Amino acid sequence: MSFAVADWPPYFDRDLPGYGVLADRLNSIFSKAGMQVTYPWFDSWKAAYNNTLAGKVTASPGWICNQKRSEYFYFSYPVYIIETVLFHLKSNPIEWESWEDLKEIGPIAITESYYFGNEFEEAVKKYKLQLRQVRLEKLAFNLLLKDRVAVVPMPLDNGLLILNKYYTEEERNKIIYHPKKVGRDYLHIMISKQAPGAISLYHKINKELINSSDTQGRFIGSQMKVLEICSGVSQPDWHVK
């Protein structure tokens, strides 16, 4: 079973022994079931997505479900929860309570293939939010430090780790994040519908994820339904009787 990934610390990091906290969790879950996982690494998540889409790799973990993606993939039972915040310069404080407020704040730097939920996508269209798309997360922070964008939405622990890994103390001290959360989202494994035996693999993966959810019950739980998490997505239920 092959999982297409790219660097996304702390969830996936090829420099760490267990390849990151999410990779380590998946390795533990599937190894107990006798299912071996390999990780083909790509230079970006866009490349990981495209290779999985083409059926060259079986699946890819760490994605938020949405209707567009569900045309080509099955979304597994949730494996992790992330909380996204807005990073900004201390010299450029922001206040926001609604999506409309982001229109007045300025350009937003987002990473290719990132998805911040239906509400954010609808706000982009409704309020014509200015987006600046980059290939890698650290490039978004580069734009922020150069004052070419006003905010960078990013999972909190992901953003903090990138700042600590790639930036000097002086640079880090220029950046802060707003306490209001942009979103709290579930991450899934996407199984390509082009993969041989895709639906059978989908059910096998779900069985192991549901059985192991009690080890992180405070995050996941074991009774979630597709329609509760993945609005507008049509696929077989996670729980097979």
Helix and strand arrangement:
Elements: E1 5-6, H1 21-32, E2 41-42, H2 45-53, E3 59-63, E4 73-75, E5 80-89, H3 101-105, E6 108-111, H4 118-126, E7 131-134, H5 137-145, E8 152-155, H6 156-166, H7 169-172, E9 175-177, E10 183-192, H8 198-212, H9 226-229
Strand content: 15-25%
- Sum up the overall morphology in one term: globular
Poorly predicted runs:
none
Cα(first) to Cα(last) distance is 24 Å
**Helix content range:** 25-40%
For the largest beta-sheet, the strand count, sense and barrel status come to: 6 strands, antiparallel
The helix/strand class is alpha+beta
H/E element string? Answer: EHEHEEEHEHEHEHHEEHH
Query: How many DSSP E strands?
Result: 10
What is Rg? 18 Å
What average pLDDT do the residues reach?
88
What is the tally of helical segments? 9
